[in-house]
Amino acid sequence: MNKKAHNLNSSSIHQNSHSSIIQSINSIELLGKDGVVYIQHNGELYQLRQTKAGKLILTK
Question: Residue 35's domain is classified under what CATH number?
Answer without folding.
Answer: 2.10.70.10
